[in-house]
Design brief:
The structure is a homodimer. Chain A is of the alpha/beta class. Chain A is built from 13 helices and 23 strands. In chain A, the strands form 6 sheets. The first copy, chain A, has an 8-stranded mixed beta sheet with strand order 9-6-10-12-13-14-17-18, with helices on both faces. The longest helix of chain A is centred in the middle third of the chain and has 16 residues, at 155-170. At the A-B interface, strand 20, helix 8, helix 11 and helix 13 of A face strand 20, helix 8, helix 11 and helix 13 of B.
Chain lengths: 453, 453
């Protein structure tokens, strides 16, 4: 039994080994004042080395810390547990049809009690067993499309996901949920926002920051929120559904082009930047927070543009950056570069020569800000004007990540650099916010100012 | 008269040209209901094309928008104004001695009414004339060290600034203020935090988001706050003093290693990340927000370590990133790479081979997160463990920018890669926050949650 198979490490693994217990065995864990009896279950992922997880007879999983006063006894091999879902709750007739496409990530994985490994397991019955409320909300069909940690997702995967969504739409579903790892969820959300135009129904991307075998998991509430949004949301856009706060009561619906993962581990890691979320789910009901959205309309014809150019790079500027990293991409015949400059959109004068060469070679070079919040403005200082004179294109208040994805998409639509520039500056999927949003609101709110919640 | 000399563009420039007015001329601007008379003054920087700025007889500058109903008449060339500061207020005896070192940026520039150009002008008398309260706070000496847009500041400049601070300390000043452009202020603040150890007195970096000729300028209040902190602050650390909110009433004092510019244009753009500011200035009085700081102690002997290795790069990962950009730095014999990975500290498996090669060649490769908030944790997922097995070093909750600067500093201290790794993981200047700060507080507060202010 290795740690790779069971997820156990350190003290917890030692204690299990000492008891000669294996995954699925019935064990008794004794501490000073307490005794727990149940089935030893594997862990899909975790940071600490001290807890063993036991499925109690009442069905609950608990984590018990292994301290010097803890003993573990193997009580018997018993029957190795297999995953036996409860009977599927009886479905109401006439519910909206929602397809869940699974691409991987914490929300889409499930510990297989037979093998101890994490497997993509997202059958409708699995889901109904975990989140029984789903059966009241939608008639769900599930497809395992990919099974990837999201940091390994590429442009080809975006294409694959967009095509799978289009197929579902052609089959007449009322909404699509995409289960996705949170690491690059913002990038995929932007990609689908550009690839899927004129959507008739919602496309809702969802993930979880903490896996379903952890007591603090956000998997069930996020999934329920996503299915609610897909089945009943009045909007027809690509959105991300994740915890708005640390409580389980609020799910925020963020526009795919304006959302960013802003915390490594918190459940409310995702925030809309430079704008408000478009909707909020509270007590299973959806409130729209804006009137400015594309309405659900099943008669609307989807326009699918699923291709992305791979020869596009993001360069984050820093003091002392060697300008030859720009030459590196120029020499590799890249077609686009997004700069993540400082402040209003600046990069040192030492880079001007390399940028000039890149632009002269026909590379589309555009500017965003590493500040994250706020709008680029390359008219304020002469240094910004000089960059514009070199041909660097300022990209309003677009997130650097969204700008990157958009340029990849733009350069797959056209070979003509003038047309590329025009398209890059066109507000295709709300990647640029209106200036009419009060600046104060778009900064404070989206940074998590949760006054009154 | 060109726009480059005067700062005027568009409609405003046309109207001035039509009136044949030049900078320094007395003009009359007539609008439907109002008339303004005064001296036409140049603009150091601005985004819009519609306002002319006039110095009225009462001494105030106002911006007047040029609309179709606006006429401008030249009333006479009059005497070209020269900069005539009011008499220096009488200084109280025995005030603390503060040196202001100017490196450039909006706060340190001043429109020269004679030539219309922006010049570094930061004499004590200039300052006293702009912020008369300064004369009550400190006995100020000023030095123009550099005159750079901060995006052009390099490692050599950090060294120069650190050495200039050391010189001032050896001359017995009670505090040092560094005027700096806001674009890379966070990087310089981190650099000085590592270069200036065992400080006896405060080193306060200050800038302004909007130049002094704009009505919404934060220059005066930030400067007064910085001088207050330098002269009277009980701490002896490298800090940044900038607006805490959009009001002029609160200046936040951020630790140099934990501060980031998080908005392109707002006056409260700077936030402490993953921690609280260490102090706040309100109504000219300083409140410490923590007890955990290095106290002012003029008997403490400064340790100056001002060198930075230049062959260190920051690579921000994105989906589809070409791993050969890592090889690019390896082949250039770089000594260090900071990765800005996704989530808890991940980068795609397609980069593993290139990272392995880099580490084998002795390059120190360390991981931070592009989430900005939160802590890296490369033990949660197997992908993170695999990266650690390759030799990638997770850097707790350090900001990517601070991590970059620290690695530049570490690699200038030692040629030995084991020692470099040890030093990189040592908490030298509070670049790693204690885990004991409640996670909620360190996220919400620093993102600008200003409940009750």
């Amino acid at each position: 039994m290795s740690d790779k198979e069971t997820g156990y490490r350190g003290k917890a693994l030692q204690a299990i080994k000492k008891a000669k217990a294996e995954i699925g065995d019935v064990i008794r864990v004794t501490k000073k004042d307490e005794t727990f009896e149940g089935i030893l279950i594997p862990r899909s992922e975790y940071g600490d080395e001290t807890h063993v997880v036991v499925k109690l007879k009442n069905g609950y999983n608990i984590g018990i810390s292994v301290t010097p006063d803890t003993t573990i006894e193997k009580m018997g091999e018993g029957a190795k547990p297999t995953f036996a879902p409860p009977p599927i709750p009886k479905q109401k007739p006439g519910l909206p049809r929602v397809t869940i496409l699974s691409t991987g990530g914490t929300i889409a994985s499930r510990v297989d009690y037979r093998t101890g490994s994490v497997r993509p397991a997202l059958t409708a019955s699995d889901l109904y067993s975990v989140v029984p409320e789903l059966a009241d909300v939608a008639d769900i069909e599930t497809h395992i499309l990919l099974s990837l940690f999201s940091e390994n997702i590429t442009q080809d995967n975006w294409t694959e996901i967009a095509q799978a969504v289009a197929k579902q739409i052609s089959e007449g579903v009322d909404g699509i949920v995409i289960a996705h790892g949170t690491d690059t969820m913002g990038y995929t959300a932007a990609a689908l926002s550009f690839a899927l135009q004129h959507l008739p129904v919602p496309v809702v991307i969802v993930g979880s920051q903490r896996s379903a075998d952890r007591p603090s998991s956000d998997a069930a509430t996020n999934l329920l929120g996503a299915v609610l949004a897909a089945s009943n949301g009045p909007f027809a856009e690509v959105v991300v559904a994740m915890h708005e706060t640390t409580s389980d009561n609020h799910i925020a619906i963020h526009r795919g082009t304006k959302v960013r993962k802003l915390h490594t581990s918190r459940r409310d890691a995702f925030k809309s930047v430079n704008t408000m979320p478009i909707a909020r789910i509270e007590d299973k009901s959806i409130s729209m927070l804006t009137n400015d959205y594309q309405k659900r309309d099943t008669s609307r014809e989807l326009i699918l543009k699923p291709k992305f150019e791979q020869k596009v790079a993001l360069i984050k500027f820093f003091p002392g950056m060697d300008p030859s990293v720009i030459d590196f991409y120029t020499e590799k015949n890249y077609r686009g570069i997004i700069l993540e400059g400082t402040g209003l959109g600046h990069i040192s004068k030492y880079c001007h020569q390399a940028l000039k060469k890149a632009v002269q070679q026909g590379i589309v070079v555009a500017m965003t800000s590493q500040c994250i919040w706020g709008r680029t403005n390359m008219n304020v200082y002469y240094s910004g004007r000089d960059l514009q004179a070199l041909g660097i294109i300022p990209l309003e208040d677009a997130l650097p990540e969204t700008a990157l994805v958009k340029l990849m998409w733009v350069l797959a639509q056209t070979q003509d650099s003038k047309e590329a520039k025009r398209l890059l500056l066109t507000n295709v999927a709300n990647e640029f916010s209106s200036r009419s949003i009060p600046e104060k609101m778009s900064y404070q709110r989206e940074q998590g100012d949760r006054v009154g919640i």
